Amino acid sequence: MPEVGPGEAAAGNAAAAAATGWRGAVGAARTSDQLARSLRVVGILIALAGVWLYFSLKSEYFFTQSNIFNILLQASNVGIIAAGLTVVMIAGEIDLSIGSLEALAGSVAAIVIIRHGQSVWLGIVAGVAATVLAGVVSGFLTSKLKVVSFISTLAMLGIAQGIAFLLTNGQAVAGFPSPYDKIGTSDIRGFPGAVVIAIVVFLALHVMLTRTKLGIQIYAVGGNAQSAAYAGIRVGRVKLIALAISGLTAGVGGLIVSSRLDAGNGLFGAGDLLGAVAAVVIGGTSLFGGIGTVVGTAIGVVMIATINNGLVLLNIPDFWQQSVVGSIIIGAMVLDQLAKTARSVIRA
Fold first, then answer.
1. Counting CB atoms within 10 angstroms of each CB, which of 7, 22, 229, 246 has the fewest?
2. pTM here?
3. What is the average pLDDT value for the chain, to the nearest integer?
C-alpha cells in the first residue's frame, strides 16, 4: 500500500478546507494517512525494542529501573527541542539554532536570577522570551524576506551563542536558588520531573498538529506550499509561527539544562542539535516537509538516548557515539529520499 503523508493529504484537501472549513480538512487528512503513520510508528517501536534487547543481553546494568529513568532523563531536554524542530520540519523548513537557543535561555535566566537577584519566575520568563523572540526573528527573515531557513537559523545560531557568551563573559554563571534547580532535578516518586515536562510538551504539540486549524495548515504548507497558498493559507505566517514554536521549546529545554547544571553558559545545550535532528529523522519526519509526527520523534529521541547510554555501558569511546548518530542521520536521509522517489513514481 503506498505511503501517503499528512502534508500530501492536506495539500490535496486544501481547496475543500477553504470551502467547508478546517475541521473537514483535518478529518479528511487524518483518515487518509492514519494507516501509514501507524505503520511508521510501529516500525520505529520494533527497532527500539530490538536495540533495548541487544543492550540488555550485553550489559546486566542496562535493563534496570535506575538506568531506564536515566535514559529518559537524558532524552528529556533533547526531546523537547526535537519536538519543536519536528513542527518546523513538517512545515518544510529547518532550525539550526535550537542548541544555541538552549544556551541563550539558560544564560539569560542566570543573569536575571543570579547576577541581578531577581525572582525565579522573572528569570524563567526572560529566558523563554529571549528564545521565542529569536525564533520570531528567524521566522520573519524566512517568511517575509525570503531568506532560506538554513541560512537564517544558521545566522541565529551564531547570534544567540554570541549573546550568551557576552552576557556571561564566557564563564559559567552558577548558583541558582533551589526552586530553579528543581526544574531539572526534581522527581515524582523517583520518576524524573524533567521527563514529565517533556511529556507535556509532546502531548501539547501532538494535539496542536492533529486537532487544530494551525496543525493542518502546517502539514499543508510543508506538503505543497503553492497549493496551500491557493487555498487561502498564509504560508509565511505559518512558517513564522513554526519557528517561534521551535524557539519556545528550545527555551524550555535550555531551562532544564541550566537547572541540572546549576549554571548558565554559552556552551550549555549548544551541542544538542545533532541529537535533535537525528531523533526527528529517525522518528519519520520527512526532510522535504509535510510528513511527520511528534510521536515518532519521541520514540526517536529515546532511541538516540538508548544508543548513547548502551555504548557507555559497553565502554565504547565517546567519539563513536557521535559517529553512530551521524551514520543514523545519513541512513534516515537515504530512506527519506527513497520514500519520496517511490511516492513520485506511484503518483506518476
1. 229
2. 0.85
3. 86
